[in-house]
Amino acid sequence: VRFLGNRSSGRMGVADAAEAARRGAEVTLLAANLLVPAPPGVECVTVGTAAELRREALARADADVILMAAAVADSRPADRVAGKRPKDDEPWTVELVPTPDIVKALGAARRPGQLLVAFGAESREGGLARKRAMLDSKSVDLVVYNDVGRGDIGFDVDDNEVVLVSRDAERMVGKRSKAAVAVEILDEVERLRAVT
Fold first, then answer.
1. What are phi and psi of 27, to 5 degrees?
2. What DSSP line would sit under 20-74, residue for residue?
3. Percentage of residues in the chain with pLDDT exceeding 90?
4. d(Cα 126, Cα 69) in Å, to the nearest integer?
5. What does the buried/exposed string (b/e) look like for 34-47 if buried means 16 or more CB atoms within 10 Å of the residue's CB?
6. Please, is 183 exposed, middle or buried when counting C-beta atoms within 10 Å of its C-beta (0-12, 13-18, 19+)?
7. Residue 47: which residues within 8 A CB-CB, separation 6 or more?
8. Angle of CA points 38, 43, 47, to nearest 5°
9. Is the pLDDT of residue 3 over 80?
10. How confident is the model over 143-194, as pLDDT tens digits?
11. I need a surface site. Which of 1, 14, 146, 180 has the fewest CB within 10 A?
């Protein structure tokens, strides 16, 4: 009845999947809580938890390109309560435990020639530096850094503004529709595939 979550709508992941399919890729979209329909011509696998997403992502870890745009929970309640907790005047403490890092697991399992793209949502100072560090700490080729501290981009809106961070370049993609941002991301994926 009560849950911890975020306002992610799935719009960016759907835009990425649609653009990849438009370019001729065979696309599987792993999705939870989509507020927009999955694009036509894309296999859509619905998941309900971070654990389910991890299982489905690792089952597809041999893909040529893995693009992780999901806003996966960083933590989850240590204990689940069946049903609704009765309301009373007593304080209630919820203990959170970290969820397994799906991108890190995919990075550890990657094979030569595979391209791994991770999104990095931040809302605090120093976010871009933390995203640069992800290239090595999670063994990814490209990090799509987006500031989710703003209300006009990021979660649950139609527009985004990102910085594409790779080992050899950084490029700002100014505010535009998520479909237009997906074009820029897939252009960068193609560029990186050509040089690896």
1. -120, 135
2. HHHTT---EEEESS-SSPPPTT-EEEE--SHHHHHHHHHHTTT-SEEEE-----S
3. 67
4. 20
5. beeebbeebeebeb
6. middle
7. 30, 31, 32, 53, 56
8. 75
9. no
10. 999 888 777 887 777 899 999 999 999 999 999 999 999 999 999 999 999 9
11. 1
CB 196 within 8 Å of CB 36: no
Q: DSSP letters along 95-123, please?
A: -EEEPP-HHHHHHHH--TT-EEEEEEEE-
* Tokens 């999104």, residue located: 119
In b/e form, how buried is each residue of 64-88, taking b as 16+ CB within 10 angstroms? ebbbbbbbbbeebeeeeeeeeeeee
Question: What number is the average pLDDT over the span 18-37?
Answer: 94
Q: Are strands 65-68 and 96-98 parallel, antiparallel or unpaired?
A: unpaired
pLDDT tens-place string over residues 93-128: 889 999 999 999 999 999 999 999 999 888 778 888
Q: At residue 126, what is the residue type?
A: G
Give this prediction's pTM: 0.90
